[in-house]
Structure formats: structure tokens, C-alpha cells
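so i finally got all the pieces together for this one. its four components total, 692 residues if u count the protein bits. some of the lines might not be protein, just check the labels. i wanna see the whole assembly predicted at once instead of chain by chain like last time, that was a mess tbh
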Amino acid sequence: MSGPTRIPGRVPAAPPTLADVAERAGVSRQTVSNAVNNPELLRPDTLTRVQEAIAELGYLPNRAARNLRTRSSHLIGLRFSPAQEGTANATMDRFVHSLVETSREAGYHVLLFSGDPRDPLAGYDDLLRSTAVDAFVVTDTYLGNPQARWLETRRAPFVAFGRPWDKPDAPHAWVDVDGAAGCELATTHLIERGHRRIAWIGWRKDSWIGEDRRAGWTRAMRAHGLATTGLASRVEDTVHSGRSASAVLLDEADPTAFVCASDTLAMGVLHTLEERGRTPGRDVAVVGFDDSQVAQVVRPGLTSVRQPLEQVAVEIVEALSGLLGHPPRPPRQVLLTPTLALRGSS
Amino acid sequence: MSGPTRIPGRVPAAPPTLADVAERAGVSRQTVSNAVNNPELLRPDTLTRVQEAIAELGYLPNRAARNLRTRSSHLIGLRFSPAQEGTANATMDRFVHSLVETSREAGYHVLLFSGDPRDPLAGYDDLLRSTAVDAFVVTDTYLGNPQARWLETRRAPFVAFGRPWDKPDAPHAWVDVDGAAGCELATTHLIERGHRRIAWIGWRKDSWIGEDRRAGWTRAMRAHGLATTGLASRVEDTVHSGRSASAVLLDEADPTAFVCASDTLAMGVLHTLEERGRTPGRDVAVVGFDDSQVAQVVRPGLTSVRQPLEQVAVEIVEALSGLLGHPPRPPRQVLLTPTLALRGSS
DNA sequence: TTGAAAGCGCTAACAC
DNA sequence: GTGTTAGCGCTTTCAA
């Protein structure tokens, strides 16, 4: 045991255990355990004595032992895949920060894992079978989410960041941001500033997220009786595509404003404007999506739809606590509304 | 026990244990453990039988039990603090991706934790005392690193990403990128392209990293017999500061090129050039540092010093394996050289 | 080469 | 309220 080898004032060879605290406080191990986990069970004076011993020894429960006994790790698994498209991983980054912070407040840590980007299930299975995590946060739902279905059959607790587009009434817990509402907000903002011919540059039709965001633009235009014909373009999510698409749209439809499905595409529009000597914000307005670093730093500042990722994290942890609670609360579905970060480009 | 309640073809109520495998293979639990950890101890036919049972049951050792027994978690702690200065957290993001990937190959997972940004020690202590992680990767060494000294006294294994600037011969393991070499590379590149009056915009003097990067610029200038007087500026790391500093430098010293300590500052230079109708790359060259998203997306592309973060991760995991090995290898200090990502701005 | 026994540090269940 | 007992699933002795 560690007791005799521990020399006061020196760095302990091994951290103190429950038994060390119990001996010091003159109580049983169980009482110490109760002092930590159910303090209301102890008589006040016993509690104080135990707490003093805990403080003196700098005791903290051994995680492995507690995990083994309680069959829970207080760890949340998050697949952190290598950078995906354009500015998207900046969003992921901001989200992870919020998640780490919020999880901590709820007593959880975030375990990052990776897996073959081509295999959406890679990594999940091992962690689940080895009981290394209590639950997952699934973020890569943009392709449809086989993970969600797979985790459901495994009865693994998880919360998705992103809707199950292919199965809207799936019963699992998810939190998402209303992209349509965001783009509607952006478009309405432009309409209020006097624009009438507002173009859309979005992603290809097989992207659910892209179609959702596009729907917001359509909705706002229709609501104000504005035509959309010839004003929309669907391309790859690259700066280059944004540039060519905006060039074509300017030639063929002469829009005075652009709403884009991403900051990456919006950057392409800014490039086109610069090439043509037209000033963003004054001659042509541009709005992006994601409020990335780029939007903040580029001249003259890119107005952009901002996802409330801090709130997403809060809702996810809330949902997670529900799933893992005793008794578990039923899964919730939460849709949050983004805001608009106004800058010089509009 | 889980045995009787498990129905073939259905989702198991609890994952199989060593005992389940042993029963199925008709051997003792210990033999199964050996099959997993020391297969060379088994007779080939026994090994095959056990491995078959493992495969049939989908057995994977329970992490908590193994952690408790071996006193190791195979988890690496990384403090993931809320976004710091400008583009710096994009670098962090890229680094974390690499670290997760490399750790996985070495059998480790990355545990993210957060802590009060004002307290550099926050979070470390609890994880250490609760034996939740085997080691730390310390990244926030830019302010000097009390963490490193503190972890050393606690005999906690850790590797720092970043040199101990305030104590260059500190014995702990660290990996860093040679910022001076990077800026020397950038400056030499500009000299080779014919520039002679090359300005420096860097951070304030109390930043060790900033002074290091600046030294690279000085070195390259001196090596080519070029004057540096009046060509340097030290400011805050913001776009705005970069803009004003470059405006002043252009007025007073008329440089034909800028080397900056960050992409953020370089963006400020680009803003100034645009304001004055001068084309980056053609009229005035600009080089940034960190090869951020912004550098890749802005027009006409920002040449930038790129840190070899993938290699940093590899070296860190290598150092970590050394520290945690049996017997441990002595700590190493590794300095890596960055490269230059060439783009339109130069 | 395989098996039996012990115990890592903790908490659930129950007795006092 | 507090103590006792048992056992989570695994690996490290050590004996067969």
C-alpha cells in the first residue's frame, strides 16, 4: 500500500485512496465514499472530519475504479475527422470549444477519436464495445447519418448535431440550427436595404443542408413578391465555384445582392466583384454563412449567418444528461435559430 | 451475470467479458487475457480457439477494468482553451486533428479539457489526481509555461508543444517549430524576388515567439547586407494594428515587401494596400505566418509560413511513447522547420 | 503451456 | 448514520 511510503512534504508516489482517507478520518471506506457522493447521509460532524481528511490528503476518487464500479466513464465521444470542406471545420472548432466547456460544467469530458473518413462508422464500434465512453455526440450527419441508425440499434446513447434529413421523424435526440431561417433572415435583411434582385449561390442538389438554406432564400423572396427565376445557382463549395457562379449570374441576371450557402462561396463572389471593380457593400451586397474567421478578417467585412454554437452545445449536453439520467428522459429534438453578423459587405 | 440474458442475434444487454470468452473457448479467463496481451505464450491451437471465440462474441477488453488494473488510461490530456488570438486557433485546430490521428496509431485517445483561461494550471490537477490521463500535451506555452514546471514537480509525464522560452535548457520533452527559420525563409524568398526594402510587422516585445520570428527576418536581411533600420514595427496581433502599422511604414520607409508575424497582421497590410490602390504581389509583396484559412481564401492568395503540424504531432506522440515506455526513454527536444506556402501576394 | 488466487479502488446492497 | 461484505473485469503473481 501507499501509506507507509508516503513522506509528508514530498511528492506522493501514488495518489491517496479512499482507504487512506478513511484511516485518517477514523471512519470506514464506505463513509468516505458517502461523504463524496451522498454527503447528506452523514452526520455534520462526521462529514466535516472526512472532508478535512480529504483536503489534507488532496484526495480525488480514482477514475478507473469508479468507472469500473459504476459502469460509466463520464466521457463523451466525439469523432474529430480531418478537415472537411472549406470553412466548415472552423465551425466545428468553435463547436468543440463550446462542447468541452459545457460538458465540464455537467461533469463530463470530451474524448476525441478519429476514423477513416470514408467509413462513417469507424471508431464508434470499438469505443462502445470497450465501454470507453458513456455517449457520443455525432456531428457528421450531413451525408445522411448511418451512425445514428447504427447507434440506435446498438442502444448506444447519443445526440446528433444535425437533423436526420433522410428520416425527419427519427426518434433519437438531435440539435440543429435552422439554416432556412438563417438564409431567410439574410435575404430579408437585404430586401429591407432596398435590394430586389437577390441571387442565391448554394450547393448541389444532393445536399440536404444546402437545399434547406436555399429554401430560406426562396421563402423570403416569395414573401415579398420577388421573382427568383434565373437568380439561383448550385455549385461545389469552393471559392472558385463561387467566383464563376457569381460572374455568370451578374452577366445574365444582374443581381444587386448575393446570398450564399457558405462563406467560402461568398469569398468567390467578393473575388468576382474585385475583378470587375465593383465595391462589395456599396455596389453589390454579399452575405455568407458560418461567420468564419475569413468573414471577420476580409475587407470590407463579410456579413454572415452565425450559428449559435454555444447554445447548440448547451442543448446537446442537456439532451445527453437526459439520456444518461436516472431515470432517462425521452430524447428531444431541438431546432435553434441563427443570427446575422452584420459587416461591410451589406 | 450477462451470460443467460444474452439472446443470440439480438443486441446484447452488456458487452461480453473475459469470462464469457473463456467459457465459450473452454479455457480459463487467464488464458483469454494472455491470448489478447501475450499471444506468444499460447499453443497455436489454443490461441486459434480463443481468437475464434473472441471474434464470435465481438469481445473487446473493458477499458475501466483494464485501466484500474494497469494503472493507465491510454488517454492523453489536452487543454482546449477558448479561442485565443486571431488566426491562432485555426492552427490549434489543425494540430489537434493531427494529434488525434497520430495518437490513435499509437493506441491513445485524446481527452479534451478546459479551464479558466486566466489560470494556466486549471484542469491539470484534477485529471492528474484522479489518474484520468496518462500524460498531457501542453500547448499554451506562449506565455512562459508554469504548467511545465508544475507538472515536472508532480512528476507527471508531459510533452510541450512550444519551447520553454524562459528556461531554454529545461529538461522536459518539447517539440517546437523554428519560427525564426520560417521568417528567414520568407525574407530570403522576397530577397530572391528582387526586394530590398523589406519591412517587418511583428508582435510586442514581450512575446518570445514574436521576437524569435523577428530574428529570422533580421538574420536574412543582414545575411544579404540589407538595412533593417526604420523597417520594423511591433504591434498587437489584430487586423487593425497590421493596417495602421503598414500605413505608417509605407509612408516613412517605402518598403516593397512586408513580412508579418501572423496572417492576421498580413491581412491588415492587404487592407492598406487595397485602400491605396496598390496590388498585393505586383506592387508590394506580403508574407504572413500560419497558413490559415484566410491566407488560402483571400485574394490574391497570401503567401504564408506553414508550420509542419502533422510532423509536430508525430514527434509529440513519439516523445510521449518514450516517456510512458518501459523503461522510459529520456525526454527529447525537437525543433522542426516550417515551409513556405507560396501564393499570389508574393 | 495453462489455471487458481489475489487484488487494483471504488460503490451498491444490506446489516447493524 | 455507519460499517461490513461483495464484486465490477481485468492482469499479475505463482503454482500445477
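Chain B touches chain A through 57 residues (CB under 8 Å).
Chain B has three domains: 13-56, 75-178+310-337, 179-306.
anyway lmk what u think
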